[in-house]
Design goal:
Lyase, Ornithine Decarboxylase, Chain A, domain 1; about 375 residues; 2 domains; about 30% helix; alpha/beta; nine-stranded mixed sheet; TIM Barrel
């Protein structure tokens, strides 16, 4: 199986950094990389209805570039609906994929022109019938997320028998039963997980009497952070083989934006801690609460580099700047950094365009949200 190796920052990002960095920490994004990843995915899966997961990187310029290319958008709130429309999205190409929502959120999305929703409960079907009459609805099926870095742990999705009942309930409620959706977990390293999900989704549709359903394979397409991952072509082949000629939707987030971004941080302190750990502790000015939420349980291991420092390296414990004990990024993940590293040095986190600025807190420990800069 062909594998994708970790990508280097784009030449435009490198030029931006070389020209003189703004105060750290910050995220720098190259929208052209987003466009390139979108083009490759749509080439591998021609005819598939691509909806970018806005939560991965809601920067207006990223959304604008994708809207101009014809992408749809997967949204989770009325706020994301507004962002997508402001970027030029056609409301008909927006899918409200979060099945946990209130009446006001549904009504606002419907009033804005959104006509496609995902559901996974009888209660939500009633809500949609009341506040989004005539909407097209996909029922989310619970599938295995084994092989993913951050599984959903059954928060979303209906088991097979309930999913069949929900497809029928959608039609009975005066809504349009559009098809079946699933999500096999974020950073999913098994292409067969997508194929298995398609097979299960088609079985649900057949049992519910849908002759030609839309199958939404969700997101979860992985990115090579430190180690190679299966190439996108492997996922496309697995999906095509299982789906045949049924209409497909997909909701990539990470796969379109991760490699478009780099976080530059500064080492605040480099310490030996006798009696605590034989390794050095390196404290950065960016951490769990300022954009690196995906380091929880060390699920995502960003590749690190220290510009201008070379020579021998040894493992470190990497921590964020806050006074919270959870703000330790990597204890188990190997993080060899140069012995020459000193406080005040820049430290870069590569392929950091996904789920960073959108996860940054507003005000914890008085720290501002993660600034975002665009390359020209």
């Amino acid at each position: 199986m062909e594998r994708a190796a970790p990508a280097e920052p784009s030449p435009a990002i490198e030029r931006f950094l070389a020209a003189g960095s703004p105060p750290t920490p910050f995220l720098v994004l190259d929208p052209q990389v987003v466009a390139d990843r979108y083009a490759r995915l749509t080439t591998l899966l021609p005819g598939a209805d691509v909806h970018f997961a806005v939560k991965a990187c809601p920067h207006p310029e990223v959304l604008r570039v994708l809207a101009a290319l014809g992408s749809g958008f997967d949204v989770a709130s009325a706020g994301e609906v507004r962002l997508a429309i402001a970027a030029g999205a056609d409301p008909e190409r927006i899918c409200h994929g979060n099945p946990v929502r209130g009446p006001a959120d549904v009504a606002a999305a419907h009033a804005a022109g959104v006509r496609r929703f995902v559901t996974d409960s009888a209660e939500d079907v009633e809500l949609l019938a009341a506040h989004a009459p005539g909407a097209r609805v996909l029922v989310r099926l619970l599938v295995s997320d084994a092989g993913s870095a951050t599984p959903f742990a059954a928060k979303f999705g209906a088991v097979r028998e309930e999913a069949v009942r929900l497809v029928r309930a959608v039609a009975d409620a005066g809504l349009v039963a559009d098809g079946v959706a699933f999500h096999s977990g974020s950073q999913q390293l098994r292409p067969e997980a997508f194929a298995d999900g398609v097979v299960e989704a088609l079985a649900v549709a057949a049992d519910a009497g849908l002759p030609r359903p839309v199958v939404d394979v969700g997101g979860g397409f992985p990115v090579a952070y430190r180690e190679p991952v299966p190439d996108a072509a492997a996922y496309a082949a697995a999906i095509r083989a299982a789906a045949g000629d049924v209409p497909l939707m997909l909701e990539p987030g990470r796969a379109l934006v991760a490699e478009a971004g780099l976080i530059r941080a500064t080492a605040l302190r480099v310490s030996r801690r006798p009696g605590v750990d034989e390794r050095r502790w390196v404290y950065l000015d960016v951490g769990r609460y300022s954009g690196l939420a995906e380091t929880e349980n060390e699920a995502i291991a960003y590749r690190l580099r220290v510009p201008g420092r070379d020579g021998p390296a040894e493992p470190v414990v990497l921590a964020g700047p806050t006074c919270d004990g959870d703000d330790v990024l990597y204890r188990r993940t190997p993080c060899p950094l140069p012995l020459s590293l000193r406080a005040g040095d820049a430290v870069d986190l590569l392929a950091a365009g996904a789920y960073t600025a959108s996860y940054a807190s507003v005000g914890f420990n008085g720290l501002p949200p993660l600034p975002v800069h665009l390359v020209g």
